[in-house]
Amino acid sequence: MLTSILAITALALGSGALLGFAAVRFRVEGNPIADQVDSVLPQTQCGQCGFGGCRPYAEAIAAGEAEINRCPPGGQDTVQTLADLLGVEPLPLDEERGETPDTPRVAWVDESVCIGCTRCIQACPVDAILGAPKQMHTVIRDECTGCDLCVDPCPVDCIHMVPVELDLAEWHWPLPADGPRSSREAA
Predict the structure, then answer these.
(1) CATH number of the domain bearing residue 62
(2) 71 is in an annotated binding site
(3) Of 7, 32, 105, 159, which one has the greatest count of Cβ atoms within 10 A?
């Protein structure tokens, strides 16, 4: 009995050591350029770029398989930031992918019309919609990225994209066009 326990323990230790060595020796490094590109993208996971989310799009850009101008939610500012990061010429935003909204938007469910079909829940890439089958649904505003993917699947058109209303935490004084001035320059 004792020899069986010792044999199994030795086998487990040997297997663990072998797996530990293999994990260190054959470790796959992530692409640091893809990490930097991914940090620039808006993380809406909308798929308008033609990829399954921001990370696959970032990996395609880093591999040279996709252009930097395919992200409507990021707009031209994101294209410019990506061009600066990668040292390439900025391209105009690809209009075939959609338009950049003037103001940030979030989904809103008209709860009096919602039939609880759950199609919007299935379409939401960031799980920002709560509800149950045959029950009213609602959107978690702080989680919604405004990707618009929940609107089309809705059979009763109860989902609307509404502008994000600024509250005191998000509001700021606009800067003058020529930049901030010191109190001496203003006088």
Answers:
(1) 1.10.15.40
(2) yes
(3) 159
| 96 vs 43: CA distance, rounded Å | 20
Check the annotation: does 154 bind a ligand: yes
147 assigned to a ligand binding site? yes
54 is in an annotated binding site: yes
Identify the CA nearest to 137 among candidates 125, 119, 152: 119
Residue 117 has pLDDT above 90, yes or no: yes
In a domain, 73, yes or no: yes
The mean pLDDT of the chain is 86
Is 144 assigned to a binding site? yes
**CATH assignment of the domain containing 130:** 3.30.70.20
Q: Return the percentage of the chain with pLDDT > 90, whole number.
A: 49
Q: Is 158 annotated as a binding residue?
A: no
Domain containing 92: what range?
Answer: 32-97
Query: What's the mean pLDDT in 40-59?
Result: 89
Distance of alpha carbon 117 from alpha carbon 119, whole angstroms = 6
